[in-house]
Amino acid sequence: MTNKYYEFFCPVKVIAGKSALEHMPYELTGLASERPMIVTDKGVRAAGLLDPVIAACKEGGLEIASIYDEVPPDSSTTVVREIARIYRAEKCDSIIAVGGGSAIDTGKAVNILVSEGGDDIAEYSGAGVLKRPLKPFFVVPTTAGTGSEVTSVAVITDEKKNVKLPFTSSFLLPNAAIIDPRMTLTLPPHITAATAMDALTHATEAFTCMAKNPLSDAYATAALKKISHSLLAVMANPKDSAGRLELAQASTMAGIAFSNSMVGLVHSLGHATGAICHLPHGMCMSIYLPYVLEFNLESIREPLGELLLYLEGPEVYSATPASHRAEGSIAAIRKLRDRLFELCELPRTLKETGKVLEGQLDSIAKLALDDGSIMFNPREVSLEDAKTVLQRAWG
């Protein structure tokens, strides 16, 4: 599992903690930005989360030139084109994406169009297409899970062709990520749980997949420790500002980890399940994680065993024989999922979702084999292997 050669890259400035939002105008004006556009969704606006962002900008002498608040959960090329049109009409000069993965991905795609020109975002799909820096782009995450604020990828749906267009470029990375605990205080329990499990999966796969390296390992283990210490405390006390900040930082750390070391079969199955059954991504991650770890067990026994220290703490780790620590890590993840099921009914099996039919499992398995993440899984996966893991996850 040791790589003799690796690359690690994360140029995103992280501005985190109490009053992080108030530091944003200084950063934007430092990039000659005077008329930012906010890209967000109706839910974020209804929750009042734009208020502190707008207030911070006004206090810092920045004029918000335009606010687009109709980003759908599954953003499309049509939405991106419309936002780019408004950006140009209002003479904006930068973008602030406020929201979860969809708003952030939309902001990234809009930035391509307004920086490169044109109306067809599909022209820029793929890897290595962009050749120069884009307009100033800031991200304010409102969920603690996706890590999109520190990743160089975006996914947008082409509605006419009914396919998901991937975009990959270091130029998609935001100039800064604003991690402010105020932005996640109103997250409902089930979204808090699902997004935290998304981050936990990012960290676990980053630490156990093929492209792991010493730097990504450091971020992955730090993320796991924060989630293990803070998730249940936040579930018990949703207004726990310190715990919310820990989860938000863990999401960012896990994002840095997996964007440098990749993910594996959990994500391949999750992407396929999301496409076919329209299950939320974090829920898919939570469901599949232990089953994939069991499938990969003999290929990842040593690193998975190490994770017991961060999942359960030093006492449990030292009391567990080295040969049983990998199984201990899986048991710890199962125990956490059971507790989350008790607290907010976050499903542990596909059957518990009520949205997946057993007859769909073969289609999910076939689609998962075509997903790019599977290349980095530590164990080769055949169609039969994928079907077997899905059958176990069915319940």
UniProtKB/TrEMBL annotation:
Residues 192-394 form the Fe-containing alcohol dehydrogenase-like C-terminal domain. It holds the Pfam family ADH_Fe_C. SUPFAM superfamilies: Dehydroquinate synthase-like. This is Alcohol dehydrogenase. It comes from the Bacteria. InterPro entries: ADH_Fe/GldA (IPR001670), ADH_Fe_C (IPR056798), ADH_Fe_CS (IPR018211), Alcohol_dehydrogenase_Fe (IPR039697). Belongs to the iron-containing alcohol dehydrogenase family. One of its GO terms (molecular function) is alcohol dehydrogenase (NAD+) activity. Its cofactor is Fe cation. Keywords: NAD, Oxidoreductase. Residues 11-181 form the Alcohol dehydrogenase iron-type/glycerol dehydrogenase GldA domain. Gene3D superfamilies: 3.40.50.1970, Dehydroquinate synthase-like - alpha domain.
